[in-house]
């Protein structure tokens, strides 16, 4: 499964991504804004593990490589919740620092949201953002998400405490 972007595409990860993935992802400014499940340092073994996980996931694709001008520049994905949260999806994304502020995350998230709403029985999409990350909040707002809640001091990352912000998008709200 591939999703078109103006100068690129969202596509499944492949084994050929390992070197660029490790190089892009081995970056504290990315790790600082993501869950602790995201490794730091990020080596080739971590890249292999991630790519293998994506390959195992199969279709429909939920975790995409972001490719611009033929280069891997980041990642974006959907986590579908289950049980009483069935129909709710968490979105997450990151872009390599050399590619920040070019509209890439916004375009990637727009494409993902359009695909997810059309392909899955989704009642709600949500994202959690750390209080010190206004760029991500801006990306979400540009894609139609609304800031629904702020949880003071909910996050500790690298020894620093910040708020947790919850953004939501309810299709047809
Ligand atoms: C958040 C992130 C994905 C944004 O990627 P990007 O491709 O640079 O995003 P875009 O260029 O599409 O949009 C960024 C927006 O944030 C704005 N922005 C950037 N830094 C900002 C700041 N310090 N304060 C306020 N807005 C800021 C930009 O101006 C732009 O908004 P605009 O189009 O209205 O001018 C990227 O910074 C990243 O990977 N960060 C680390 C991982 C991360 O935070 N992931 C998301 C976790 S919720």
Task: Give your account of this protein's structure.
It is built from 5 helices and 8 strands, in the order E-E-H-H-H-E-E-E-H-E-H-E-E. The protein is of the alpha+beta class and 173 residues long. It has a domain of 121 residues: 3-Layer(aba) Sandwich (Aminopeptidase). Strands 1-2-3-4-5-6-8-7 form an 8-stranded mixed beta sheet, with helices on both faces. The mean pLDDT is 97. It binds coenzyme A.
Q: Layout of SSEs?
A:
Layout: E1 3-5, E2 8-12, H1 18-25, H2 28-31, H3 44-57, E3 63-68, E4 71-80, E5 88-95, H4 104-119, E6 124-130, H5 134-142, E7 146-157, E8 160-169
Parallel strand pairs: 5-6
Antiparallel strand pairs: 1-2, 2-3, 3-4, 4-5, 6-8, 7-8
Bound molecules: coenzyme A.
Coenzyme A (COA) binds next to strand 5, helix 4, strand 6 and helix 5.
The N- and C-terminal alpha carbons lie at a distance of 28 Å
Helix and strand succession?
EEHHHEEEHEHEE
Major β-sheet, in short? 8 strands, mixed
By CATH's scheme, which homologous superfamily of the domain at 3-123 applies?
Answer: Gcn5-related N-acetyltransferase (GNAT)
Helix content bin: 25-40%
The poorly predicted ranges are none
The number of distinct helices, counting runs of at least 4 residues, comes to 5
Name of the CATH first level of the domain at 3-123: Alpha Beta
Radius of gyration: 15 Å
In this entry the ligands are:
coenzyme A
Classify the fold: give the CATH topology of the domain at 3-123.
Aminopeptidase
**Could you say which overall geometry the principal axes of the C-alpha atoms support?**
globular
Mean pLDDT: 97
Strand content: 35-45%
Question: Could you tell me the number of beta strands?
Answer: 8
């Amino acid at each position: 499964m591939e999703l078109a972007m103006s100068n690129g595409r969202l596509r499944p990860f492949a084994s050929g991504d390992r070197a660029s993935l490790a190089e892009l992802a081995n970056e504290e400014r990315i790790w600082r804004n993501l869950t602790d499940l995201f490794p730091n340092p990020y080596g080739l073994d971590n890249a292999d593990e991630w790519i293998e996980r994506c390959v195992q996931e199969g279709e429909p694709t939920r975790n995409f490589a972001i490719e611009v001008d033929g280069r891997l520049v980041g990642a974006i994905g959907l986590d579908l919740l289950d049980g009483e949260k069935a129909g709710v999806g968490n979105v997450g994304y990151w872009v390599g620092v050399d590619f920040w502020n070019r509209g890439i995350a916004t375009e990637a998230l727009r494409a993902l949201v359009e695909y997810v709403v059309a392909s899955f029985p989704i009642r709600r999409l949500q994202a959690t953002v750390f209080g010190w990350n206004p760029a991500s909040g801006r990306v979400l707002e540009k894609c139609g998400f609304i800031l629904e809640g702020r949880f003071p001091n909910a996050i500790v990352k690298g020894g620093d405490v910040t708020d947790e912000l919850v953004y939501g998008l309810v299709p047809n709200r």
